[in-house]
Amino acid sequence: MTTRSYKIMPKQTFFNLPDEKRENIINIAVDEFAEFGLENASTNRIVSKSGISKGSFYQYFEDKQDIFMHLLKILEREKMAYLSGQSPPNMNLDTFAYYRWMVKTGLAFNSTNSKMVQAVTRVMVGERFFFSKYLTDARERTKEFIKNMIDNAIKKGEIDPSIDVELAVMVMEAWQNTITTYILDEGMKQKDFAAWVYSAKTQEMIDKLLYVMEYGLRKTESEFITRPPSNSPLIGEK
Amino acid sequence: MTTRSYKIMPKQTFFNLPDEKRENIINIAVDEFAEFGLENASTNRIVSKSGISKGSFYQYFEDKQDIFMHLLKILEREKMAYLSGQSPPNMNLDTFAYYRWMVKTGLAFNSTNSKMVQAVTRVMVGERFFFSKYLTDARERTKEFIKNMIDNAIKKGEIDPSIDVELAVMVMEAWQNTITTYILDEGMKQKDFAAWVYSAKTQEMIDKLLYVMEYGLRKTESEFITRPPSNSPLIGEK
DNA sequence: CTATAATATGACCTGGTGGTCATATGACCA
DNA sequence: TGGTCATATGACCACCAGGTCATATTATAG
User: Fold this and answer.
1) ipTM for the whole complex
2) Nearest nucleotide to B61, CA against C1' atoms
3) A90 and A60 belong to one structural domain
4) How long is the CA A42 to C1' C7 vector, in angstroms?
5) Domain limits at B197?
6) Same domain, A93 and A120
7) CA atoms within 13 A on the CB side of A125
8) CATH code where residue A130 lies
9) Burial class (CB in 10 A: 0-12, 13-18, 19+), A188
């Protein structure tokens, strides 16, 4: 295992296939990853359910991780397309409001693609230690997106320039993960995933979570001026 | 795989062993879980490195999960003992300050037991989907602890009784995970894990993270009175 | 010392895994 | 029709997993 970023993508033979056959393979892989994650997904099972031969699988994909990374790309692309096709309720949203809109619109997208989201989230959250080389790029893209958003907000004067940007990025990313895994955990228990996501109770919980984050971030820097971290209880001595 | 909570613990034969041999087996298992997690840990490797036979392993433990759960118990017990032996800086800490002290004292403990903490955290965070039946009890204990702390704080008048307790528990648990995984991720890159944990930079980051959480939680309910969630941007229509 | 109980052993079992490669098949072209 | 190229096949490979169980060894008791 090298430290090089993962760049392999499906081979041309895969793209030569009829659409229907291609989609069938992808859908079966989605089911497999949703149920077993990446490490425990089995190429033997995927092959058996797809009705393709084992050797064909390796003519289409470099290895098991390759097909997963392809799913990841599909999901990213479709989600960005979905978000581009939606409009925020008005053009004067500040950054936090925009972020809230984005998270919740993302959840609307997720509720109509729950299997694929489940598959990807399960791996991103659950197998980060095993597949860091494959997942680092995707995580960096998320962080970069958030960082750009915060930088723009600072330029627009919406966020105090003294904010710890690294901290804010970290908090927002962690929050996104928390909300996503909450939705995934609880959603799996529901009869109708989408109806549950749209329910007033769930929406309220998500709102509250997002407000906790916002107020925490807005407050922190100014409060540090009046109450520096040195007043925090000392950590135990070695 | 049944839905029954996991209760098996090592067999008497394990406790009959000389102390030294017992600790050796445990230490080797810790190394294995730290490196491979639970699903990918290998009994063959543990056995080979311990110098015990395969059959003996199954005389000491019910199965692979059994030895992991034993580690979990050891860690919980040692950590509670460590916290009991420490005193907060003063007796007038409010709940958030107490929680901060607790998290940071816990980190002091972690930095002297980093391998075991790494092993347990890796599984608790990374393999939650595979081993929910084993890990649920441990997670419930954490939540119960946090809930009791919040209930007491409400009784003492430190926290507004209108707070959404479920939300607060969820946030505090998520935050603990975020801090722990941050420490684990970054700590793994360091030459001297303990020195890095104690460094001013790291302490400041942890402080900031904890303050974000505190301010977010303190603010939320009162703010909802003046700005109800219905003003939040609507989620995209189906 | 013998008998019994406790402990240790490791070959074997069943069941997989990801991936390879020699061969077969099918489509297309002249 | 034969030749070429693209695609499909599946037996096989090396390796591994968790766990079992007949047997061997050691410790202990009388």
Assistant:
1) 0.83
2) D19
3) no
4) 39
5) 86-225
6) yes
7) 27
8) 1.10.357.10
9) exposed
